[in-house]
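As agreed, record copied across for absentees:
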Amino acid sequence: MSTAIALYNSPIGTILIESADECITALLFRDEKNGQEKEEAIINDQDKSDGLINKCQQQLKEYFEGTRREFDFPIQQSGTAFQQKIWAGLLEIPYGKTISYLDLSKRTGDAKAIRAVGTTNGKNQLSIVVPCHRVIGSNGGLTGYAGGLWRKRWLLEHEGKFANGVQTLF
C-alpha cells in the first residue's frame, strides 16, 4: 500500500491531504481532531508527497481561485453502506447550492434518518471535495461543520460569489 501525506495552505487554514492506494483518502483542516495526530506523522515522515497529492493541491488552488467547481481525482473513505450512500448524496449537491439535512435524508431514502445523516456528514474525511459544507439546517441557518462554522460560512459565500455573483449569503 502506497501512502503519502502533505499540507496545503488555503485561505481558510492549513489542510492535511492524505493519499493511499491511488486515491485521496483525507482532506482535513489541521485544527480538526485527527489533524494534529496526522501532522505529527508528517513531521516524523518528512512530508512525502506524490503526483496524486500534487494534482489535489492544484485543484484545491483552482477551487479557491474560483476557477474549479468539481474535483476529478479519485477519492475513497472507509464507512458503512449507509455512510457511503450519504457521502455519495453529498457529491450530488451542485456547486453554489445548499440543501437541508432533512432534504439530504429524504434524497437518500429515509426522512427519519436525519440524525444519522447529520452524524455521517460530520464523519466526512474529505472536506470541500465531498461538500458536506453545502448542508444547512431546515430553517436555512448554518449548523454543524467539523471545520468550524466560520469555514462553512466562508465556503458557502465563496461558492455563491462564483456561482451566482452573490457577495454574502448570511
User: Anything to note?
Assistant: The first strand starts at residue 3 and ends at 10. Residues 38-48 have pLDDT under 50 and may be disordered. Strands lie at 3-10, 13-20, 23-29, 99-100, 135-136.
